[in-house]
Amino acid sequence: MPSLKELRARIGSVKSTRKITSAMKMVAAAKLRRTQLSAEAARPYAAAMRRMMSEAAAAVGDAPGLPPLLVGTGREQTHLVIVMTSDRGLAGGFNANAARAARNLVRRLQAEGKTVRILPVGRKGADMLVRDYGDLFIERLPGSSGKEVPFSAASDLGDKLVALLSANKFDVCTLVYNRFVNVMSQVPTELQLVPLTSGANDDRKAPDAPIYEFEPDEETLLARMLPRNLAIQIYAAMLESAAGEQGARMTAMDSATRNAGKAIDRLTQKYNRTRQANITNELIEIISGAEAV
């Protein structure tokens, strides 16, 4: 049985942990409000960009010389998987869920005989995948680390993808990230970035599809806007991931704080029982000694 001194030390240690987890919960809650508003504000803009690119793609049809960002390389052999996680832990299953979704995607592609390359964005995801798929990494990029997500980070990643595509390093690019639903739920999501999933064929077949006129012409518009659209889709995913990280961390720290409170109650009860038992033993010894005299 632990001594009173040991129990007091354990109670003090758990109380210190509870203060830390409670502070982390409040910090995550403050950051969540900001990141959630940013993610929700980006959704309609990203959806509008996808819709506009779909309409332009439907207008050009199967014209020759279309940008690779729209039609790809014409092959589907080499797949680039971007795994978006955070640089920090203590966020429940946030990073593990994204890494698991990426691992399942890689296994599915390899079972189909595809060549897979991985680009992890965020230290935690890279650490989880490096043991099994470290030889597939082409680079390791830092995540947002809980800070404000600058658009330049998405733009730089988009430029890197364009350069890799121009160098024929991949044929298809898929982004795996956690889409923010609410504080309790972040859904691992796969988003194909290259080639663009436009749904152009469905638009052409629909009898009541609207007719658009583009200025400048569709080819020029696509050449200019596709890189911008790529950066916007990446940026929207980064905002979703940042909001999901803060939501998962707030939930995890709230659970840890409540568990610490329960542990303190159990240890305090054990401390009181041990102290009472020690006092009782001392009284018995005193009474036994007095009777012996």
Automatic annotation (TrEMBL):
Keywords associated with the record: ATP synthesis, Cell membrane, CF(1), Hydrogen ion transport, Ion transport, Membrane, Transport
Transmembrane segments: none
UniProt subunit comment: F-type ATPases have 2 components, CF(1) - the catalytic core - and CF(0) - the membrane proton channel. CF(1) has five subunits: alpha(3), beta(3), gamma(1), delta(1), epsilon(1). CF(0) has three main subunits: a, b and c.
InterPro entries: ATP_synth_F1_ATPase_gsu, ATP_synth_F1_gsu, ATP_synth_F1_gsu_CS
Domain of life: Bacteria
Species: Ameyamaea chiangmaiensis
GO BP annotation list: proton motive force-driven plasma membrane ATP synthesis
GO molecular-function term, one example from the UniProt record: proton-transporting ATP synthase activity, rotational mechanism
Keyword Transmembrane carried by entry: no
Gene3D superfamilies: 3.40.1380.10, ATP synthase, gamma subunit, helix hairpin domain (1.10.287.80)
Family: Belongs to the ATPase gamma chain family.
Gene: atpG
GO cellular component: plasma membrane; proton-transporting ATP synthase complex
Role noted for this protein: Produces ATP from ADP in the presence of a proton gradient across the membrane. The gamma chain is believed to be important in regulating ATPase activity and the flow of protons through the CF(0) complex.
NCBIfam families (alphabetical): ATPsyn_F1gamma, PRK05621.1-4
Membrane topology: Peripheral membrane protein
Subcellular location: Cell membrane; Membrane
Pfam families assigned to the protein according to its UniProt record, in alphabetical order: ATP-synt (PF00231)
Keyword flag Ubl conjugation: no
Name listed for the protein in its UniProt record: ATP synthase gamma chain
